[in-house]
Structures are given as structure tokens and as C-alpha cells.
Amino acid sequence: MKLIIGLGNLGEKYKNNRHNVGYMVADYSKKTKVFKTNTFMNDSGSFVSSQLKKTDIDFSKLYIIHDDLDIKLGEYKIQFGKGPKDHNGLNDIYNKLGTKDFWHIRIGVDNRDTMNRISGEEYILQDFTDQEKIILEKVTKEICKKLETL
Q: Residue 85 pLDDT > 90, yes or no?
């Protein structure tokens, strides 16, 4: 058994934000149960911790789906114990669990203009463009297929 959790922010305002790709994958996934946190991104650790206690699952069977500004839009990585350089939702999980040793499903969201690069904090809270949504849908399909076989 595994526990798969998508990170994001609650509410309609954030629904299409780059920071919500974890929720988007959870909503798209049909064959695999993916939980969504019931907190805002920066408080994700409480939800993850409570789900681990309820299910009595080992960290090695925990998969967290999240946005990653260290990876270009259209790419993703599934890695054990390795996340982005800076991510407040993950930092909260690391603090609450006392470890980084779980699976990270790192979905690239960086599509910033290199000549006019805005801050990461501002960028992740912006909605995906229509063109970006097309790219994201392809990646989301691939990830959902992988989730079925993890």
C-alpha cells in the first residue's frame, strides 16, 4: 500500500495556479487514489503527518506531488528524498515529519521569460496560460500512468 498526496492551496482563487499542480494531478487521476491536502500549501505538514498516522504507512511508501521551479514546464522527476531548493509546503512537511526521505513527484512549472524573470513566489501564484495548460495536461497524463504502477 502507498499514500499519494497532492499539494496545493484551497479555494477557487488558486485553482489554476502553478503552485496547485499537485491538486491538478489528484483531480485528474482516475485509477489511483490521490489525496489532496485540506490546508494551505505552507501548512501541508500537518495533513501529511495525520494521514501517515491514520494509515500507518512507512515513509518509503509516501509520495508527495508538488510543483517545482527547478524543473522546466513539461518535465518531471520522481525521486526519493530529493525536492526543490526552496518550497515552503515541503519545508513544512520536512519539519513535521523530521525527514525528507519520501518520494517526491516533482512537476516542472518554470516557463519564465529569461529576459524578464519575475520572482518565484510571484510566479507560482499565477495561473497557467492556455498554452501551458496543454503542456501540463500531457505531463499529468504521464504521471497518472506512472502512479498506477508505483
A: no
